[in-house]
Amino acid sequence: MKWFKRLLIAFFSLSLLGVGAIVAAYFYVLPSLPDVNSLKTVQLQTPLRIYSRDGKLISQFGEKRRIPVEYEDVPVQLINAVLDTEDARFFEHNGIDPIGIIRAALILVTTGKKSQGASTITQQVARGFFLSNEKTYIRKIKEIFLALKIEKALSKQEILTLYLNRSFLGNRAYGVGAASQVYYGKELSQLTLPEMAMIAGLPQAPSAANPIRNPERAISRRNWVLSRMLEKRNITQAEYQVAINSPLTAKYHGAEIDLYAPYISEMARDYMIQKYGEEAAYTNGYNVYTTISSDLQLMAQESLRDNVFAYDQRHGYRGAVAELWTDTPIHNEDIVAILKRTPSIQGIMPAAVISVKDQQAQVIDEKGKLITLEWKGLKWARKFISDKRQSLPPKLATDILTAGQQVWIRHNGKHWQLSQIPQVSSATVSLAPHDGAIETLVGGFSFSQSQFNRVTQAKRQLGSNIKPFIYAAALEHGYTLATLINNAPINKPDTRQGTAWRPKNSPDIYGGPTRLRIGLAQSINVMSVRAMRHTGLDNTINKLVQFGFDPSDLPRNESLALGSPSVTPLQVATAFNTFANGGYLVEPYFIDRVTDSYDNMIEQTIPAIACSKPEAEEPIAIDDPFAAMAEELTPQMVKPSADNAHETTEVNLMTVEQNICTNPQAHFAKRVISEQTAFLITEALKSVIWGGGDWSKGTGWNGTAWRASKLIKRHDIAGKTGTTNESRDTWFSGFNPTLTATFWVGFDDHGRQLGRSSWMANGEPDQISGAEAGAKTAGPGWNDFMNKALSGTPEASVIPPKGIVSARIDLATGKLTRKTDYTTQFEYFVEGTEPKEYVTETQQNGDIFIDNPAEDLFQ
User: Which of 183, 291, 297, 393 is disulfide-compatible with 763, CB 3.0–4.6 A?
Assistant: First the structure.
């Protein structure tokens, strides 16, 4: 019995020594053990995601791809696969697995090798969040004590959720949510059993068992996971057999970008970095929901791109990119290898000319595909001589191409055609009139070519786009749409620029006294200068500042009236928005809200809205004119707009003043012009598109944007062209009650002119030949975009605001008349400003308004 007592004493002694060693180890590592309670509020490193207003992913920034998931969202079989593989007794132990520890100890004793096989999921969480991966005894001791503390602080479900979200699973994927997207392009709920087994096998060998890099080893690992699931009776034999025989379906899936809008995503990224810092922005999992409408954004991008292509083709073909061979063709494999070194740009792809015959050519693309370019895809290619000159149209394909040339091609939606990288630049932005939300933004033709955002960063001369604001100031200083302004050469030049400046019309034609409506609709230069002289230079500048223009951009001379200021497209759209919303300057904004990785609200934009603060004692209508038709208004008849005697419309939309103004959190935009002035300028800007008069009686006339009326067959659109000296900048800005948009076209090189063209892309004489200008260069982009954007939406009716009256006037004199023939029409006036005098027979025969000579003096 002595040996038994000795054995018993030895056992207790060793036990005491073991306990003492554990206690000593605990107190030794205690000072360096972190607070595990921090796991309750841990912030997983999750990338920054940018979305459209309707939830389409625009972009993702950050090194790690992680999609945090809740425990309840993880499929049961994926949990089983993970537990059966990593820690079968997870729900039974208290953080450490004694059986696993004994097994690891035996391996150490028998082989001398350390093993990580004893680590429970809790220990792996401890190591992943607080420790390194080095295999040392002290790290293992810390890991064990941390695991015990974690089990006391967190529930099993919380621990497992941390593990599932943090594990590195290869290809920059962290967590099962990201792995599901990276390898299968699916949500977790859509994974099949073999796909779940594949993901469950990755934590211990994310590189060695990677299904993309090492498919054979990945299948072996997957099948081992499935065998563990079968052993633990979490799947049947039949399920096991089907799963192990399943082919490998994993392939790399990049971030699932739903909407490519790089300029707006770059703006959002910059905003987040400026506000939260680069590290937090890239790792805290913020979701930024912009104000961009995905449908409208796609339309804007397509319209801008097609418009740039149209300009580029009008000016001719600049030739091949390179010559790959002359006499002896090279092998197709070598051609493809060369072409692959040249990236595609906005659908324009590199190709090599294989053969040319008659009126067609055969090319090979970067994928080795043979493509035939028919004559309809070649005949546009007149030789480019300069921005102002092109050769005559080609007659044969050999006039254009030679075998061996490297060229560009693209598919225009109908057929393949020869192409080239455009040199001209363009930008467009559109806003919601009631609150300034940026609906679309395209900062250039190609973000890959240039990250310069021309919407917000490029200041370009405004040209005639400034005239609506010049005339708005004049209306608020006594002018009306019927006021006669002398359309005649200006004899008193402005010398404040250092030289005598005598503005001229373009074309250099003068028609004598002309109504203000026509002066704006036909963009008559001298009338704009005279209108500004009536208002006064200081008053005009003050008004332009109220429209949102920077005073430092506004020259203190009369060139201001013709658009000499350099401004950004966003400033232009913001200013035009005041006409669309009834006179309010609403600040544009592009971020609707920011949420955390679990979509909890971090910040929400509350924009200023286009309505006046309601009087407390008066009830305010809360119907939104931009969202619903006014059902409670009794339809009433209004007289047709002047120079547009095409319809008598019913009032069926709420006015801006009846917008949603009772929101207790509402911010109210500043009114910069009266609702009446906004209405009158809008009516005049409709004439820019629709013209006026009676063509059948010989009194009809076009506005500068008459092409818009041919495409957009609705009368609630208004706009203005803009062209600068020597056609360096061209603009078109316009709106309807629900959308305001601006298009700009020009060269980034401020000195380069847009030039002129004399033939269309199809080789036929061009009805818009001649110098490039706002109407033909920027206008078609705006026309195409607005035609698409407004398609299917109801046409808004004319709703004169309170204080607007209409009166029949004589077209020649602007005075009242009792006649009802083609020489007269109704015109709108602010009540009290309508003419008081009736036209006389003598005045109708030509004795009409003559300028006061003092009018040409500076004011």
Answer: 393
If phi over 0 gives left and psi between -120 and 50 gives alpha, with beta otherwise, what is residue 391? Answer: beta
**Model pLDDT for residues 139-174, shown as the tens digit of each residue:** 666 677 677 777 888 888 988 988 898 888 888 888
The predicted model gives 264-272 an average pLDDT of 96
303 is a catalytic site residue? no
* Beta carbons of 754 and 745 less than 8 angstroms apart: yes
86 is catalytic: yes
Which of 464, 564, 597, 797 is an active site residue? 464
Q: Which of 86, 657, 675, 772 is catalytic?
A: 86
- Whole-number pLDDT of residue 624: 37
Contacts of 33 (CB under 8 A, 6+ apart): 142, 145, 146, 149
Question: Residue 78 has which token pair?
Answer: 């994926």
d(CA 703, CA 690): 6
Burial profile 405-424: b = 16 or more Cβ within 10 angstroms, e = fewer: bbbbbbeeeeebbbbbebbb
Q: Can you state the angle between helices 467-475 and 569-580, rounded to 10 degrees? A: 40
Would you say 196 and 39 are in contact if contact means Cβ atoms under 8 Å apart?
no
Contact (Cβ atoms closer than 8 angstroms) between residue 699 and residue 822: yes
331 token code pair: 């092998």
Structure tokens at 716: 């609630």
Alpha-carbon radius of gyration of the chain: 36
Average pLDDT across the chain, whole number: 84
Nearest to 743 by CA among 425, 413, 437, 309: 425
Average pLDDT over residues 472-492: 95
Give the tokens for residue 633.
């208004």
DSSP states along 211-238: TTT-HHHHHHHHHHHHHHHHHTTSS-HH
What is the side-by-side strand order in the sheet with 718-723? 438-442, 425-431, 739-746, 729-736, 718-723
DSSP class of 455? T
**Is 683:720 a contact under the CB 8 Å cutoff?**
no
Q: Is 535 exposed, middle or buried (0-12, 13-18, 19+ CB in 10 A)?
A: buried
**Alpha helices in 493-564, H assignment, sequence order:** 516-521, 525-535, 537-546
pLDDT per residue as tens digits for the range 82-134: 999 988 888 888 877 777 666 666 665 566 555 545 688 888 877 877 665 66
